[in-house]
């Protein structure tokens, strides 16, 4: 049984109503429910007495250190079977880390700890690392985003990595680590016995100076499947260094996030080579890089290569225009693997989307999710989009937000949604004006087809 409640003010009567249910739940999720210390005392008791409970999510509650102390009393009991604990954005400080260290040391069932967006600081996370190093600890996933960490944390992290072969996922995004610390971390990762599968270092103050060391991790750790270095100013030179590791035969990367990395079209030659030859690569995000039409054309040429197995391409806000849409259309009509294409916030215009839809309608194309928000579209393009919605059976999600579609365009989309051949389950239409009459039509459509969600 699963209890999943979010964004609900938890009154005493409502809490009393839920308590009996929690005693047999396998998963309890109470995100953003304004939980108090007394709620945590009850949860501690449930943790002790419910051997079925394996996952507890309490994100976005102002719990504070004292409430977590109550929780940990239950977590420290031998009867506890909890595997996954989420305490993101719970107003925690380094003061609770000693108790959490005790839990890590004593509770071998715990495999995931998510404590991001708390002011644990370097001192607090050093204490957590001591718990991770305990032989009893079998942690696999550690999430420490927005924890006010500095470069001084790396020595403790490397020691934990050396001692913990079970660790598979490490997220350190949005901490001011800097190049020197990231270099040390990467050297530790290369030497560590752990088979890390996920490494997130978004917004960590990385430049091209540490990309050679990240590249070494990629070429030495065939276990690494998911790398995110978005929101770091690595530039074209840094990307070229990363690609040396990405192109290494040992590298089995599946997901690569490079959003807002100061890349230009100059990087697209290396990226194209990666997309066309690295058959493990399934998802790449290049959002908010100035790739321009010339860069996108190179990426599209790579997508046409039979060896490309890319399934998701995110190129939102990349300075694209109508000029690249013929190349996009050609890639869509050739590539059978691409499932998700994000092209929002580019000035494609109606003419560009007409071209994209030509490729979309090709039998080879298997697109499931297409994002065209804020692409300078008008009602003119909606007839072609409606045809795609009713013809392309694979298409289940379409985002047209922030486009001036007006009543005329929305009505064409509604007509397509009513068609039995249309498989679109989610139509996203944020910040688009339409009349009250059209609004009534949309609500009626949702009632007649409850499987369809119109998000606005």
Briefly characterize the structure:
With 456 residues, this protein is an alpha/beta fold. The chain is 40% helix and 12% strand. The chain has a 17-stranded parallel beta sheet, with no helix packed on it.
Walk me through this protein's architecture.
It is a single chain. This protein starts with a strand and ends with a strand. The protein has helices spanning 12-22, 37-49, 64-75, 97-106, 121-132, 154-163, 178-191, 211-220, 235-246, 268-277, 292-303, 325-334, 349-360, 382-391, 406-418, 436-448, and strands at residues 2-6, 27-31, 55-57, 84-86, 112-114, 141-143, 169-171, 198-200, 226-228, 255-257, 283-285, 312-314, 340-342, 369-371, 397-399, 426-428, 453-455. The mean pLDDT is 96. The chain contains 16 helices and 17 strands. It has a 17-stranded parallel sheet, with no helix packed on it. The chain has 456 residues and is α/β, with parallel strands linked by helices. The longest helix is centred in the middle third of the chain and has 14 residues, at 178-191.
């Amino acid at each position: 049984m699963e209890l999943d409640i979010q964004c609900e003010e938890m009154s005493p009567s409502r809490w009393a109503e839920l308590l009996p249910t929690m005693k047999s739940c396998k998963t309890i999720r109470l995100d953003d429910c304004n939980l108090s210390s007394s709620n945590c005392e009850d949860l501690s008791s449930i943790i002790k007495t419910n051997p079925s409970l394996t996952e507890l999510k309490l994100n976005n509650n102002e719990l504070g250190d004292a409430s977590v102390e109550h929780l940990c009393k239950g977590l420290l009991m031998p009867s506890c079977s909890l595997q996954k604990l989420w305490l993101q954005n719970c107003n925690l400080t380094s003061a609770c880390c000693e108790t959490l260290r005790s839990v890590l040391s004593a509770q071998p069932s715990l495999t995931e700890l998510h404590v991001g967006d708390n002011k644990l600081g370097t001192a607090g996370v050093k204490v957590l690392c001591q718990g991770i190093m305990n032989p009893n600890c079998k942690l696999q996933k550690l999430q420490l985003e927005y924890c006010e960490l500095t470069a001084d944390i790396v020595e403790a992290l490397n020691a934990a990595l050396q001692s913990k072969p079970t660790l598979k996922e490490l997220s350190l995004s949005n901490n001011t680590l800097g190049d020197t610390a990231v270099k040390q971390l990467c050297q530790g990762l290369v030497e560590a016995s752990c088979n890390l599968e996920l490494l997130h270092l978004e917004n960590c103050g990385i430049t091209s100076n540490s990309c050679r060391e990240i590249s070494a991790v990629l070429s030495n750790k065939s276990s690494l499947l998911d790398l995110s270095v978005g929101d770091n100013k690595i530039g074209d030179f840094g990307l070229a260094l990363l690609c040396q590791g990405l192109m290494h035969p040992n590298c089995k990367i599946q997901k690569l996030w490079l959003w807002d990395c100061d890349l230009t079209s100059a990087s697209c030659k290396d990226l194209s080579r990666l997309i066309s030859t690295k058959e493990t690569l399934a998802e790449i995000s290049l959002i908010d890089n100035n790739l321009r039409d010339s860069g996108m054309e190179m990426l599209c040429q790579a997508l046409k290569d039979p060896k490309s197995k890319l399934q998701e391409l995110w190129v939102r806000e990349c300075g694209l225009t109508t000029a690249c849409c013929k190349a996009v259309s050609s890639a869509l009509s050739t590539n059978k693997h691409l499932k998700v294409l994000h092209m929002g916030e580019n000035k494609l215009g109606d003419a560009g989307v007409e071209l994209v839809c030509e490729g979309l309608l090709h039998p080879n194309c298997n697109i499931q999710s297409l994002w065209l928000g804020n692409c300078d579209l008008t009602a003119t393009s909606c007839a072609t989009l409606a045809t795609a919605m009713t013809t392309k059976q694979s298409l289940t999600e379409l985002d047209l937000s922030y486009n001036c579609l007006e009543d005329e365009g929305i009505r064409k989309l509604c007509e397509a949604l009513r068609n039995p051949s249309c498989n679109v389950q989610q139509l996203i239409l944020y910040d688009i004006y339409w009349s009250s009459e059209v609004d009534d039509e949309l609500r009626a459509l949702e009632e007649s087809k409850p499987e369809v969600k119109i998000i606005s």
